[in-house]
């Protein structure tokens, strides 16, 4: 087994060598002039900037390693070069070494207008994208154009990447940091939502456990292209290096990129050695567990037989003792007094509640006759109760009595008796309940009834009781408070007359409504309320609010207890408030009309004036691009960026103008509804079915705009709250009305339980009222929502 394991380990170690032999890079095919030059310059000097993961120096092994080191090694193998390695701390040191002639070429450079004066560059051999990083799991793929000022983006400043983001995405909230590590730490701490850095630095930092919760969420589209730069005075060297790069297999460059630049977040158990060690450890633990288990089994068999019987007996005994303790605890802690009384009327047991209730000490009630506690229970009466309770007579099991306490006072109690047979003996269990509070409550209730009658006589209104005898059927007023004199000028006796009552006091114009409400309540024995005008003895009109609550008495008589309030002042205030609300609604309609006109004017000015200026600016940039772009590639790129920014500004102008007042409204409300539906469908990916008639009568601009705004508000509510899968929009003519219906299959809601701080439906209803129409909202939880708006055509 040991020999087989050694062979497997040797084979596993030889696999990379075999793969390397299979993927050996072939020699590059050079032209004669290039081959002749290379034969005379086999020894070349390579300059490297020490920066992970491109190039690093291992002090223990005294050798260089990294992506650029492996690339140049493959290139040297393909060209049969003898290399001398020289490393520098930064790019400035590398360029200085080139100027003084210390190096011949360097990998991992990016082409800039300034560097073209120092180097001859090869074609790009590696693309390093600039990535957007966010928290893993909580962030999906993002679009930088949709990020706002609230989404902080950490980026290293100063730098070309930050300049690019600032010019391309001006809305981003860029947070400058000193290095890429700090940018990622800002995302982890919540100070920024995203960080932007190149893939190489992300691959270096992602191997640390600190950043294991991060993930790539976007690519900003500005990759860093790595090239090989060589001396400008050796153009043949640049051609030879270019041929060497072309000879390298694409798979080699891809593997090089994956090994050094691909982000790899640390995960436990990714290496084979981990699983081998884990399997070995688990095997040792398993062997130890088996040995321990065998010993335990041997000892367990010895103990199980001796403990089984003892355990069963102990469990049975513990169960009985626990039940006994629970029963005794329940009796001792009960707030009801409990006495066990033998047939000879002597007490055999008294719980602490009974002793405390009667003021007796512990054990002082035992062996005393029950007549000492309840004087009316002499021996003869006790025997009668004993026999009746023993035979199950329910009438003798509960009654009220007075018990004598230790201090001689009589305590009102309720006695409940129950028969008990225990250990060949018979007892009556007597439960004592203190009813002092109950009697006190009854006395207080009678006092409150008397007080209520006194209060009713002084209420600033009219309190009444209306009764109806089921046999006679005619209602009558058995009680009317003295407040009737101050309210209507009549004494209670006058109103109680059968030919008068409250009906004769109601204003003639409101009498029919009062009769309808009262007759309906009398016929159905329900509560009733009414508001209207009443006429006093002096002929003055007063607004009154009548409320009566129905209740049925034990004899079948129905009684209505009610009160008549004088609401004259509040009613006048209510009418004034209604008038004020109508004026406010008219003001709101005027303001809405002015607002829409101002939006239309601003939309025209933004679209015409700003659009013309942007067109001129775009033409000027295009002229500059035609005239000067070929002189400098960087200028060409800058002008292209300006053109993209102008195009984005064009789109922004169109969006602003459309949001203020869509031009489609000029084509009619039907076209505007169809356009808004398609726009909603494109933005939310929710299918939208639209039905509009071919010929609609012309609407005024105010009504068309109002209907369009109502549709926008309805679709916004669907997008935010409905979670719908489909939406149906219908516009049809219904007689003299134009009806618009919006139906969704979303989660629905309870219209009566809308949030107090939500003004969506309130604003929608106000818009419909301004147009002189009506609105209906039909919705149930889980059944979707239907919104129907009808406005008059004329």
Automatic annotation (TrEMBL):
GO CC terms of this entry: membrane
InterPro entries registered for this protein in UniProt: HATPase_C_sf, HATPase_dom, His_kinase_dom, PAC, PAS, PAS-assoc_C, PAS-like_dom_sf, PAS_4
SUPFAM superfamilies tied to this protein: ATPase domain of HSP90 chaperone/DNA topoisomerase II/histidine kinase, Periplasmic binding protein-like II, PYP-like sensor domain (PAS domain)
Cleavable signal peptide: 1-21
Entry keyword set: Kinase, Signal, Transferase, Two-component regulatory system
Gene3D superfamilies: 1.20.5.1930, Histidine kinase-like ATPase, C-terminal domain, PAS domain, Periplasmic binding protein-like II
Boundaries of every PAC domain copy: 528-579
Gene Ontology terms, MF aspect: phosphorelay sensor kinase activity; protein dimerization activity
Keyword Transferase among record annotations: yes
Ranges for domain Histidine kinase: 601-794
Domain PAS as annotated: residue spans: 448-525
UniProt-recorded name of the protein: PAS domain S-box protein
């Amino acid at each position: 087994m040991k020999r087989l394991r050694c062979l497997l380990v040797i084979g596993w170690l030889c696999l990379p060598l075999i793969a390397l032999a299979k993927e050996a890079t072939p020699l590059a095919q050079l032209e004669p002039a290039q081959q002749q030059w290379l034969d005379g310059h086999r020894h070349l000097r390579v300059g490297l900037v020490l920066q992970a993961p491109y190039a690093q120096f291992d002090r223990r092994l005294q050798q260089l390693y990294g992506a650029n080191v492996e690339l140049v090694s493959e290139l040297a193998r393909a060209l049969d070069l003898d290399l001398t390695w020289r490393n520098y701390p930064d790019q400035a040191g590398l360029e200085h070494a080139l100027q003084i002639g210390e190096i011949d070429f360097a990998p991992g450079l990016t082409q800039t207008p300034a560097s073209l004066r120092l180097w001859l560059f090869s074609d790009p051999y590696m693309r390093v994208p600039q990535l957007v990083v966010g928290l893993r799991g909580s962030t999906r793929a993002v679009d930088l154009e949709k990020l706002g000022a609230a989404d902080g983006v950490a980026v290293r400043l100063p730098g070309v990447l930050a300049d690019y983001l600032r010019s391309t995405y001006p809305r981003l909230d860029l947070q400058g940091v000193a290095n890429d590590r700090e940018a990622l730490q800002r995302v982890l701490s919540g100070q920024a939502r995203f960080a932007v850095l190149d893939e190489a630095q992300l691959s270096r930092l992602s191997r640390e456990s600190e950043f294991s919760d991060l993930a790539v969420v976007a690519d900003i589209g500005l990759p860093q292209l790595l090239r090989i730069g060589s001396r400008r005075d050796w153009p043949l060297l640049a051609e030879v290096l270019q041929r060497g790069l072309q000879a390298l297999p694409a798979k080699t460059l891809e593997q090089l990129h994956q090994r050094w630049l691909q982000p790899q977040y640390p995960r436990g158990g990714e290496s084979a050695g981990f699983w081998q060690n884990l399997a070995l450890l688990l095997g040792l633990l398993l062997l130890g567990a088996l040995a321990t288990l065998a010993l335990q089994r041997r000892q367990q068999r010895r103990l199980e037989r001796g403990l089984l019987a003892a355990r069963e007996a102990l469990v049975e005994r513990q169960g009985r003792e626990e039940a006994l303790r629970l029963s005794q605890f329940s009796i001792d802690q009960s707030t009801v007094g409990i006495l066990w009384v033998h047939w000879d009327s002597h007490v055999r047991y008294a719980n602490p509640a009974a002793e405390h209730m009667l003021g007796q000490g512990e054990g002082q009630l035992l062996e005393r006759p029950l007549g000492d506690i309840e004087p009316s229970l002499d021996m003869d009466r006790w025997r009668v109760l004993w026999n009746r309770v023993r035979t199950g007579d329910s009438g003798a099991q509960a009654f009220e009595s007075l018990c004598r306490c230790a201090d001689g006072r009589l305590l009102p109690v309720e006695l409940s008796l129950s028969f008990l047979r225990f250990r060949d003996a018979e007892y009556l269990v007597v439960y004592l309940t203190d009813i002092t509070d109950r009697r006190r409550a009854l006395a207080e209730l009678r006092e409150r009834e008397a007080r209520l009658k006194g209060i009713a006589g002084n209420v600033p209104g009219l309190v009444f009781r209306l009764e109806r005898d089921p046999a006679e059927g005619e209602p009558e007023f058995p009680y009317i408070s003295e407040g009737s004199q101050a309210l209507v000028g009549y004494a209670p006796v006058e109103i109680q007359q059968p030919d008068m009552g409250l009906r004769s006091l109601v204003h003639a114009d409101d009498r029919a409504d009062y009769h309808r409400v009262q007759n309906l309540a009398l016929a159905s024995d329900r509560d009733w309320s009414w508001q209207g005008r009443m006429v006093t003895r002096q002929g003055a009109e007063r607004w009154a609010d009548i409320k009566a609550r129905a209740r049925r008495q034990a004899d079948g008589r129905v009684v209505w207890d009610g009160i008549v309030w004088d609401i004259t002042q509040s009613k006048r205030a209510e009418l004034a408030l209604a008038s004020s609300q109508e004026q406010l609604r008219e003001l709101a309609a005027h303001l809405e009309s002015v607002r829409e006109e101002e939006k239309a004017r601003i939309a025209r000015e933004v679209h015409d004036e700003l659009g013309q200026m942007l067109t001129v600016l775009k033409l000027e940039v295009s002229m500059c691009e035609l005239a000067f772009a070929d002189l400098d590639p960087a200028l060409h790129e800058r002008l292209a960026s300006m053109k993209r920014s102008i195009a984005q500004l064009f789109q922004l102008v169109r969006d602003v103008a459309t949001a203020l007042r869509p031009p489609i409204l000029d084509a009619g409300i039907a076209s505007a509804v169809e356009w808004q539906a398609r726009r909603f469908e494109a933005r939310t990916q929710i299918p939208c079915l639209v039905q509009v008639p071919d010929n609609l009568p012309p609407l005024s601009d105010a009504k068309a705009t109002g209907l369009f705004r109502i549709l926008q508000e309805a679709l916004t509510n669907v997008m935010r709250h409905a979670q719908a899968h489909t939406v149906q929009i219908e516009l049809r003519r219904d007689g003299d009305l134009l009806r618009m219906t919006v139906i969704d299959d979303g989660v629905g809601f309870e219209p009566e339980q809308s949030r107090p701080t939500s003004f969506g439906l309130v604003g929608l209803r106000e818009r419909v009222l301004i147009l002189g129409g009506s609105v209906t909202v039909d919705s149930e939880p889980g059944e979707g929502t239907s919104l129907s708006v009808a406005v008059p055509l004329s």
